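EI: anyone free to look at a 394-residue chain?
SC: sure, send it
EI:
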Amino acid sequence: MYIRCDLNDYKPNSLKLLLVVQLTQNLRNGIIAPILALFIRSQGLTVAQIGLLGTIEMLGWFIFEPLTGVVADRVGKKRLVIFAIVSSSFIFVFFPLAISIWHFALLMFARSSVMSTASVSIRAMTAELLPTSGRGKAYGRHMSVISMGGIIGPFIGGYLTYTIGYTIPFYVSAGVGIAGLAAVLLMRYDERPIIEPSSPSEVLKQSKLMTRPFLAILLVRSLYMINFVFRRDILPIFLHESQSFKASETQIGVYMSIVQFSAALSELFLGSLTDRVGSRKIIASSLGLSGLSYLSMVYLAGTLPLYLLGAFQGTFFAAADLGMMIHLIAIMPEGRTGMVMGIYSESENIGGMVASPTMGMIYDSMGPTFLVLSVSTILIFNAVLSILLIKKGS
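SC: here you go
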């Protein structure tokens, strides 16, 4: 059974409330972003062990996101989001109490497991609620507002850690998550009935999922996860320990805030640009420029060049994420948003599970410079791959 109701009565208010939910979740994750890897490192763990923890975290996504994709269209996406927010807020509270790799492994697996239900559900709801006309423009503006949470979050997390310590940011993140519950509870989106497809031809149309364009974007997205894992798990450590940067927690937070601020500004026009030139060009160019930006990081030194580089990187990263999502929404079959987003998320998980331990071992055995060059090379290769695999005009 699939939802086939008219969304016109639900779209405006539901999309705005969903925006608030995503904004608060981005804020809470942004607070933790610059300090989580550093906090784990401060407990005596090696970078290779942190990479292993990243794999364990990705395992939670890997197991539960496809399951969520299967049930989200039937159980109700709103209910899954409520469960995820409440559960993950309690998990954040326990992070400061962790002292061993096993504690961190349990917490990271638990967090990714419960948040997988929110990730798939929110993506699916966004795809369903966006207007069909000028979708790129609407999605770009939507993501621009959401990025505001990521702008101030890293600065708050870095500053609180530098002045007070590692404990308070986790508690603040938990509180911000709970505050976002109000918007979820006000949504009427999931109160509609589920209706059967009207004809056998519609059933056949909806069943066509694993098409060549869909498989292509899954592969490109999977390889792109090396950038996500590197930024989350390795880059804060690299900036903190590098002799060229020697960045403090506050400076790392400022750098990440600059990246998010640049992303938010660029998303205001990237959506419209995608509508005009197509997602293929946006994806390929952003992947290539992201790779070149990391290459330049090997030769830079000092805080100011790092901040300037972050301003450019925010645009590249936003363009890659936005271009891939717009392309995915354009090719997905109707009535299968939950399952599509579950599979799309699974491609991210597979890429992350491979990238996380590999990069940790490279960092410890071959050095940070070699790792940065490797990330740069893979992103440039992925840009070429996207040109070859993603259909022209999409």
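EI: The longest helix spans residues 212-241.
SC: 👍
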